[in-house]
Amino acid sequence: MTFWIDDVAIKAWHCLKHQGHRGRRFIFSDTVIETSLMMKGIFKLQICALDGVLNEVLPLMNVPLRSPTYTCISKHSKP
Questions:
Q1: Where is the Transposase DDE domain (predicted)?
Q2: Which of 31, 48, 52, 77 is the most exposed place for a label (fewest CB within 10 A)?
Q3: 63 near 5, Cβ under 8 Å?
Q4: What are the pLDDT digits (tens) for 11-61?
Q5: pTM here?
Q6: Which helix (H) or strand (E) holds 8?
């Protein structure tokens, strides 16, 4: 299995526009949520399992990124 993340995707990983009130963190970009949901569909994973897979794959790739959390993915996915 091969995963590939290019530099453009790494730069677009986090949303740079501030969401909400002062003190709130930046959220993940729509591209990350869509990519995560695409992986969910390809590998037929539950959202909680998807969170675990992403948390394991990113460090193995030596990519300094965090994966979106279970709640972040579920809030932004359409039913």
A1: 1-77
A2: 48
A3: yes
A4: 878 776 655 566 555 578 888 888 888 889 999 999 889 888 888 888 888
A5: 0.72
A6: helix 7-11
Q: Are 15 and 29 in contact (CB under 8 A)?
A: yes
Report the b/e string of 16-29 with b at 16+ CB within 10 A.
Answer: eeeeeeeeeeebbb
How far apart CA 60 and CA 70 sit, in angstroms, is: 20
Q: Burial, 69: exposed, middle or buried (Cβ in 10 Å; 0-12, 13-18, 19+)?
A: middle
Residue 30 falls in which region: left (phi positive, over 0), alpha (psi -120 to 50) or beta: alpha
